[in-house]
Amino acid sequence: MFRRVVTMTESSGSLDVATGGFYNALFGGLLSQDEGLDAEFLSQSVLATLGIVSRHRDWPGFSIALKAVAKDLQRRDPRLQQTLFGCSFSNPIGLAAGFDKNGVAAGIWDCFGFGFVELGTVTWHSQKGNPKPRLFRLAAEQAALNRMGFNNNGALAMHRTLSRQALPVPGRRPVVIGLNFGKSKVTSLEDAPDDYAMSLENLAPLADYAVINVSSPNTPGLRDLQDEAQLRRLVSRLRELQSCPPVLVKIAPDLDDESVDGVGRLAYEEGLAGVIAVNTSLDRFGLETRWLPQTGRTLGQEAGGLSGLPLRRRALEVLRRLRATAGPALPLIGVGGIDSAEAAWERITAGACLLQIYTGWIFKGPGLVPTILEGLLSQLDLHGFDNISDAVGSGVPWK
User: Fold this and answer.
1) Can you give the pTM of this predicted structure?
2) Closest Cα partner for 367 from 79, 69, 89?
């Protein structure tokens, strides 16, 4: 995966860098069709390799390869830097929760150009998740359907995994690390605050920030915690912890406007560090009759959350609503359907301070991160902005 292949395009003289090219050569054919290698198996195979590299990143062979990947994918520029809720972000692009659920590759995500990474979702109890198959590619739509069900090894196991990687302490890392927390399936809604609190208390020393995930559609009853009273009860319980990192909440795209407004008000009144908008959606966005060859059923008949390009418009709507309700001071993280520099700029100028990618990154490959960062820098120049923070909520169009 870390083989570096560099070719010169004679007509333009540009450098075709290998990390993205090698990814496309290796996985492009698989990702261009719904069928073939199982989506979850493919992701887990890649992640297992990255986990080995992260544990042994100081070994000469791995360290050389990682430096080559970093040279290809990182874009260092002070105009992209921000300090939000006490964390220093080298750039606004992060890897969303859901890919590295157990934190196995936590030590190397900066090499892929990310300014931050969100690990998890992690629950207090380890759990296998929902029955397989539970992750499906929608290649033509650049989308995915998942009903994973918070499959993870549990908070105690994540603590051991992160500790083995000998990460620098929070605040001194090359990449900001957020931890995304969910409710264990076996835990009732009544006991949910204690369930979240036990996970967070155990992992707080390793987190730059924490996320309350109350919006996954794949754990029965979880979204009920988005109710204002339930969410206030949960936040109040976490505040009792002696050492608690900045806490954000992640919401669903399927909330109605009144509920979105309620979350915005709650975040402001309760002093939350920010809101992440949005999670996957139960809406099928006109794709209800889309047939899944893996199951022989339509998308409308299948359970699970939709992610990727079809989510872009709704995610933008929710973000704009939150910004209008919560005011300019509350940090917002935009996620959902971001697969280009233009989509990233659209989300930032609508009010997002930071962005997360996942499905688009899978389909487009690791080259998506530098592509977005270069596009953002270009827009800063065209609009005369000194820093990416000047563009947040500005409403200026893509040029």
Assistant:
1) 0.95
2) 69
